[in-house]
Structure formats: C-alpha cells, structure tokens
Amino acid sequence: MFKMTHNILRNLVVRKSTRRYPFEVREAFDKVRGELVNDIVRCIFCGSCEVRCPSQCIQVDRKAAVWNYDPFACVFCGVCVDICPAKSLSQKTQYLRSVDKRILISMQGELKKKSREKDKEAEKDKPAPVEPEGPAATG
User: Fold this and answer.
1) What residues contact residue 55 under an 8 Å CB cut-off, 6+ apart?
2) Residue 128 confidence (pLDDT)
3) In terms of pLDDT, which residue wins out, 17 or 78?
4) Fold assignment, 27-121
C-alpha cells in the first residue's frame, strides 16, 4: 500500500492522458476519409462501387434503382469514391457517430434514360414546323 501512495497522489495532480470519448471528441485530421455519402440524384446505378468495394458493404439494384450501404461493414478505403463515374459518392471528414443499433442505409433513385431514348422522345414532343401561307410568305 505504501509503495503505491506515490503513484496515487501523482495521478490526482497530473493532467489526464486520455480523452473522455464521446464527451470530448478530437478534431479530425486533414484529408481524413470518413462517412460515405451518396448524392442519389447524380447516381446512375452502374454498380461499379459494388464491384470494387473490398468489404462488400454496397449493394446496387439496377432495375429497381436502389442503392444499399452498410456503414458498419465499411472500411473507409475510398475506392468506391475514386471509381464512381458519375461522381455521386463522396466522403465526409468525420466518422460515423457511435450508435446503439445497426444502421443500414437504403436510397431509392430514378433510372436515367439513355441518350438515344431521350433523342427519340424529344423528336416526338417537338412540334412540326409550320409553313407560312399567302403572298406575304413569298416576299
């Protein structure tokens, strides 16, 4: 007991070497790869993020235009962000906050029409040109 008295008294006076997380949160470092965010409006549901994800935490349903993400399986490597052709994926500079329940993120989007289909629809909706009639048109 007497041998530890010195350590006990010193620990009462000296500043703590640890933080009381989650009450005291440290600021994130520069360029940290944190929580994954999808801008579902820009997403084209190509599935490249699903194919390249090493932890297989992303699932893409191309027919139903649904994007599913499991943040607890993600390793925050950033491969999906780098490979996304539509640039709809990004990462925040902060990690996911601690929670008591498992969260699965599911986003519903709209399928983008292909450019050929858009051109055909634009031609159908375009009014036919009207030719002017009468003597004023010839002048």
Assistant:
1) 73, 74, 75, 77
2) 57
3) 78
4) Alpha-Beta Plaits (3.30.70)
Alpha-helical regions (H) of 53-107: 79-83
Strand extents, DSSP E, 84-136: 89-91, 105-108
103 in Cβ contact with 71 (< 8 Å)? yes
3-state secondary structure at position 16: coil
- 108, amino acid identity: Q
- Domain locations in the chain as residue ranges: 27-121
Measure Cα distances from 119 to 9, 72, 113, 114 in Å.
80, 42, 10, 9
Place of tokens 């990004």: 90
Between the alpha carbon of residue 98 and those of residues 2, 21, 84, 94, 101, the distances in Å are 41, 10, 27, 12, 9
Using one digit for the tens of pLDDT, what is the confidence trace for 77-131? 999 999 999 999 999 988 777 788 988 999 998 887 765 565 566 566 666 555 6
Run of H or E residues at 67: strand 66-69
Cβ distance 69 to 96 under 8 Å?
Answer: no
pLDDT at position 120 is 62
Q: Are 69 and 103 in contact (CB under 8 A)?
A: no
